[in-house]
Amino acid sequence: MATPIHEHHGEGDHGAHAHDDHHHDPGFVQKYLWSTDHKMIAMQYLFTGMFMAMIGGFMAYVFRVHLAFPGVHVPGFGQVNPAEYNSLVTNHGTIMIFWVAMPVLIAALGNFLIPLMIGCDDMVFPRLNRLSYQIFLLSAIVLIAGFFVEGGAFGGAWTSYPPLSAKAQYNMTPLGAPIWLVAVALEFIAFLLGGINFVTTAMNSRAPGMKMFDMPIVIWMIVIASILFMASVGPLFAGAIMLFFDQTVGTGFFDPNQGGDPILWQHLFWFFGHPEVYVVLLPALGVVAEVITVFSRKKLFGYRTVLFTSFATGLLSFFVWAHHQFIAGIDPRMANVFTVTTVLISVPIAEMMFVYIATLYGGSIRLTTPMLWALSFLIAFIVGGVTGIFLGASGADIYFHDTYFVLAHFHYTFVPIAILAVFCAVTYWYPKMFGRMMNETLGKIHFWGTFVPFNGIFIPLFMLGLGGQHRRIWSYENFPELARPEYYHLRQFASISLIIMLACQFIFIFNFFWSLKNGKVAGKNPWNANTLEWTTESPPPHGNWKELPTCYRGPYEYSVPGRESDFWPQDQKS
Amino acid sequence: MRPIATTRSATGIPTGRLAVWWVIASEIVIFGGLLASYLMHRLGHPEFGGPEYAGATNTWIGAFNTFVLLTSSFAAVKAHEAAQAGDGPTAAKRLLYTAFGGLTFLCVKGYEWTHEISEGYVITKNAFWSFYYVAAGIHASHVVGGMIIMLILYGDVKKNKELQRVELIGNYWHFVDLIWIFLFPLLYIAK
Amino acid sequence: MSEHAHAHDHKGHGGHGDGGHGDHADHPSYFKTYITLLGLLAVSVAGPMFGHPWLTLITAFGIAVVKAYLVASRFMHLNIEKKIASYLLLAALALLLLFYAGVSPDVMKHRGNNWENMAAQDEVERAEAAASTAPAHHHE
User: Distance, in angstroms, between C94 CA and closest chain A CA?
Assistant: First the structure.
C-alpha cells in the first residue's frame, strides 16, 4: 500500500505560516498548566474527565455492591446508609454526564480535533479556551468539595426536583445542595464559553477550499452539539439561579405556598435535559462515523443524509422533553403530544444506524480495537434506542417510569456514548495525540472485558425493572415482591459484572501509560486515513503545521475506483 | 499573538463579531427562560398587579433608568462611529460615557432597592418580588460586566488599537439595553 | 467627519450634536433614532395613565417590541449584518416561544384535563381577599 507523498504548497492564505519558531522555550507551568494551545487544553479536559470517571465508577461500585448484598461492609467504603446511598447515586449520575461525557466527547475531542481537522493553527480565542477549562476545573473542585462539608454531598438525584432540592429540612444537606448547584452552574458556564470557540472556529476558520460539506462528520456533530447545548441550557441556568435562591434565601420560586410551582423546575430541567442527551450522543455518533469509514475503507453511505438527519434530530430534540414527566402531573393533553414527538424522534436516529450499517456493508473491514468499539456502539445503542420506545409511549410509561427499566434503557444509551465511543475515540486518535501506537492485544482484551460485562450489568436490570423494582431506593428489604431471592440473584449478577468491568479498566490504564513510552512510533498516518489531522506530525507541533493545508475534497474518499491507493487525503492535490 | 484561525472568515462575519452574536443568542435563552417563567406566573396570578406586588414599584424611577440606558446605548453607538472613522481617542471617551451611564443606572437601582427593602418589599416577600430582584439583579450583573469590559478596552482603544472591539462591546451593551427594554414594562408598567 | 462634540458630563450623554451624518448617508441618523426611542419611552409611560388595560398593554409591550427592533436594527446594525446573525437570534427567540408553549399549560393555568393546582388556586384567592379588604395604599 503505497503511502502517497504529500506536497504541501502554501496556496490559500499567504502567511499560512503558523507561528514562526522564534520560541521561547515554555516552562512546565506555561506548557502544561497555563497553555492556550488547543491540544494541551484538550488533554487537560481529557485527563480531568477520565479522573472524574474513576470517581463516578467508584460510586457505582459502592452502591451496586450494597444493592446486591444489603448491609454488607463495602470494601473501600463501609456500610452504606440511606443518606450516603442517595448522595452516591446522585453524584454518580451528575458526574458521569457533566464531568465525564461532556468534557471528553465535546471539550477534549472538540478542542483537539476541530483545528486539526479543519486545517487551522488553533481555536479562534485561545485565552477564552484556557479560561473555559479553568472554570471547568473549578466546577469539578466545587462538586467534590460537597463531599467534605457537614451534611455531606447533595442527595436529591441528578434531576434535583424541588421541594426536596430546595428545602434543607427535606434533603438534609444544607451545604451540599447549594454547592452541587453552583458546581453544575459553573460547568454550564465553562461549556457555554467553550462552545463559543467551537462554533466560531468551525464556522469561520476552515482551510481554503474546505466547504461546509467537506468537514468531517465528527466536527459537524460537535458543532451541532454545542448549538443544542447553548440553546437548551438557558432556561435551566435561570432555573438554577432561582433554585439557589430558594435554597439559600428562602424565596418560593418552586413553592406553591409562596406562589411558585415545582412543576416549573421539572420543565426547566427537562427542556435542557432532553436535548442534553443528544448533545452527548451526536459527538459519539460522529466518532463512530470517522472510525467505521476508515476501517471499512469505504465512503460514508450518505454524508448529507447523516448531516440533515442530525439537524432534524437536534431540532426534534426540543419537542420531546416532557416524556420525562408523563406521571408528574402534567396536563394529559400535553402527554399525547409528547408521545407522538418522542416516538417520531426514533426515526432519524434509526436512519443513522442504517446509514452506518450500509457504510460497513461491502467494505474491507479491519477489526482493529477502535473498530471493535465502534461496532459495539452500534449494537448496544440499538438496544438502548428500541427500549426507549416503550418509555416514550405515555401509557406504557405509567408502569415503567422510575423503574430499573428506565435505568437500563439509559445506560444502554449512555454507556455507548460515554464509554464505548470514548474508548473508540481514544484508541483511534491516541497515535495522533501521543505519537505512539497503543498495544492491540491489550486493547482487545480491554474491549471484551468491558463490553461483555456491560451487558451482564444491565440485562438483569431490564428484568428487574419489568418486575417492578423502583429506582432510588436504598433497600428492598421492606418490599416483599422485590425482596425475592431470584431478584437478589439478578442484582448480584449485575454487581459482579460491574466489578469485572471495573477491574478490566486497569488494563486500559496500563496500556495508556505504558504505550506513551513503549508503543510503536506512530508516524503521521498509521491508519491511512483521509482527514487533515493525519497530514501533520504525531503529535502535532505548536501551530499544527509549518504551512497550513488547503483542502481539495471531502473527507470520505476511500477506495475511489481508478486510484491505486485506497485512500485520498483531503489536502492532496490529485 | 493571534492565531491565523482568528483572522479567517468563511462566513463573511469577522470572528469576534460572530462570537458576540453567539453570546447574545445564549443570553437570549437565559433571560428568556427567566422572563418566560415570570410571565407564566404573572398571567396565572392576577394579584401580582396589586399594591403589595408590582403596584409598589416606582414607574418614574424605572422610566428614568430606561432613559439612562437608552442614552448610554446612544453613546455606545457613537463610540462605534468614532472607531469606524479610526478616531480612537474619541471612541474611548464615548466608551467612558457609556460606562458612566451604566454606573448611573446602578446607583439609581441601589437607591431604589434600598427604599423598597426598607419598606419591607424583600426578595422573600412574595413570588413577584423574588422574580423582581432576581431578574433585575441578573440584568445588573450584566451591566457591571459590560462596564468592566469597557474599562479594560479603554486603554487600547485610546491608543487606536483594537478599534474593532468597540463595536463588539457596543453590541453586547445594546443587548443589555434590550433586556431592560422588556424588563421595564414587565416590572414597572404592568400593574 | 466625526464631530468631536463637546461633551457635558451629564448623566451619560454621549457626544451628541448631530450624529451620523458624515459617513452614513444611507442609514438613519443615530441621533434621530435615539430621539425616537425617547419619544416611545414617554408614550409607554403615559399609556397606563389612561386607565385602559388594553391600551396599557399595547403601549407597554407593543412599544417595547418597536424599541427593541430599533435598537437591534439601527444600533446593533443587524439591518446590514449577514443574515446568519439574524437567523441565529430569531432561532433563539423561537425556542423561547416553544418553551413558553410547552410549559405554560402546566404553570400558568391552574386547572386542566383531570387536574387542579389547589395550592396555587388557594394562593390566588387568599391574595385577592387580602387585597379587597386591605386599604389601598399607593407607592408611586
Answer: 10
